[in-house]
Each structure stands twice: as C-alpha cells, then as structure tokens.
Design goal:
With about 70 residues, the protein is of the alpha+beta class. The chain has one helix spanning about 65-70; strands at about 20-25, 30, 35, 45, 50.
C-alpha cells in the first residue's frame, strides 16, 4: 500500500494561560500567551480548538457558574 506515515503531535508544547474568549460556534478559544508574530511585528492571538485544551485550574469565584457546573452531577 505504499509508504504510510504516522506522525505524532505537530506542536508538542505545553503552554499555560488564562482563557480570554470562547467562540461557541467554532469551538475555539483564545488563550493568554498563545500568539503569533505578524509581519508588522505585532502579536496576534491564535485560536485553539477546545479538544486541544486541558483545564488545570478553574476560577471558582463566580457562584452562579459553579452552581451551573455542579447541578445534575449527583
């Protein structure tokens, strides 16, 4: 069947940052610190797909958000 290629992860990097925005239509997030340099030397945020993100810490200061996350879990 010819030469088959099986690659690993394309960008094997672990970047930690705060989620700035969430686009629920495309399923992508913008994360603080995940940027690319443009040709005019300015930084632009790179959208990351939600399947490539692992939440390590959750902001628990918003009581309504925590209630919505924990309801129907028992």
């Amino acid at each position: 069947h010819g030469g088959k290629r099986h690659g690993g992860k394309r960008h094997d990097s672990t970047t930690e940052g705060v989620v700035l925005t969430v686009d629920s239509n495309t399923g992508r997030l913008t994360i603080e610190g995940v940027t690319v340099a443009k040709s005019d030397n300015r930084e632009e945020a790179v959208p990351v797909h939600a399947s490539n993100v692992v939440i390590t810490r959750l902001d628990e200061s918003d009581k309504l958000r925590m209630q919505k996350l924990t309801e129907n879990r028992s």
